[in-house]
Amino acid sequence: MTFSIVARDPETDAVGVAVQSKFVSVGSVVPFASADAGAIATQSFANVAYGPEGLDLLREGHSAEEVVEELTGADEEAPQRQVGIVGQDGSVAAFTGEECFDHASDRQGDHYTVQGNILENRETVDAMADTFEATDGGLPEKLLAALQAGNEAGGDQRGEQGAALYVAKPEGGYDGGNDRWIDVRVDDHEHPIDELERVFRIYDITLLEREDPEEYRELSGDTAESVLATLSALGFYDDEPSGDFGETEREALEDFRGMNNFENHDLDALEDALARGWSDADGEGEDRVVNAIWHGISRLDRK
């Protein structure tokens, strides 16, 4: 009841998995990744031992194809299993057991593999692969776009419930202390992929660093007044909102930044992001502020 994509970004050495399933907390079962080895998705009566054992084999220098052969060859229930693997060496492989429920299949390309079972159709797998290849941007954007495309093309026969995005990158974790670059999960939701994207935007702003803008914009005019009205409604600004954005107004934005743990972006960068992204942002209140910041910083490369 699952479809997933496993992929690698050769420019950053990031490796990761995006997955959706009619299965609660799918992120606790399917994805495994390590920056010094590769990434693995294990699904369809998942054998979760495939994750750590497969990463160990990749670490030892085995190719993805060799790892698939080793894992499934030692598993009596392999005909029911499905697994996709991408190694840091660029090797890619997948396995779909002959007893997986239809529709079940997989497809590989440069630095990625897509796999799914109990799907509405083969188009789910193909849409994910085609979208991953066609999407610009970083690895998380490409993985999320592939997940959305698969769902729109047919997706899981039994519907939606959980989704997850897990990406490892060398020193990508909090304060560079480990490789857990992105770890976002939706355990139980009517539209888990949409919710995963919403949560990822907050995660992106909070935990992922971006290059500094070459040119900073300042808030002014109608945009400044609208931003201040929102900050006022949220309790961060006490004066009458206007088109002026001076020291008092910047202090209100600084309070918002601190309350939401957006320290990865200094105040000038945050103001620049709001000035650029406000008109593109959806939602109201805090949701719109967060969406505006995300839209405003999205043009900048991640570090």
Topology (SSEs and partners):
Layout: E1 2-9, E2 14-21, E3 31-34, E4 38-43, H1 50-59, H2 64-73, E5 82-87, E6 92-96, E7 105-109, E8 112-117, H3 123-134, H4 139-153, E9 162-168, E10 180-186, H5 192-207, H6 221-233, H7 247-259, H8 267-277, H9 285-297
Antiparallel strand pairs: 1-2, 1-8, 2-9, 3-4, 4-5, 5-6, 7-8, 9-10
Helix pairs in contact: 1-2, 3-4, 5-9, 8-9
What does this structure look like?
The radius of gyration is 21 Å and the shape is elongated. It has helices spanning 50-59, 64-73, 123-134, 139-153, 192-207, 221-233, 247-259, 267-277, 285-297; strands spanning 2-9, 14-21, 31-34, 38-43, 82-87, 92-96, 105-109, 112-117, 162-168, 180-186. Helix 1 (50-59) crosses helix 2 (64-73) and helix 5 (192-207) packs across helix 9. The protein is α+β, with helices and mostly antiparallel strands and 303 residues long. The mean pLDDT is 97. The protein contains 9 helices and 10 strands. The protein has a 6-stranded antiparallel β-sheet with strand order 7-8-1-2-9-10. It starts with a strand and ends in a 6-residue tail after the last helix.
Name the helix and strand elements from N-terminus to C-terminus, one letter apiece.
EEEEHHEEEEHHEEHHHHH
Principal-axes geometry comes out as elongated
What's the assembly state of these chains? Answer: single chain
What Rg do the Cα atoms give? Answer: 21 Å
Number of helices: 9
The low-pLDDT segments are: none
Count the beta strands: 10
Cα separation of the termini: 35 Å
Strand order of the largest sheet: 7-8-1-2-9-10
Helical fraction: 25-40%
β-strand amount:
15-25%
Q: What structural class is derived from the secondary structure elements?
A: alpha+beta
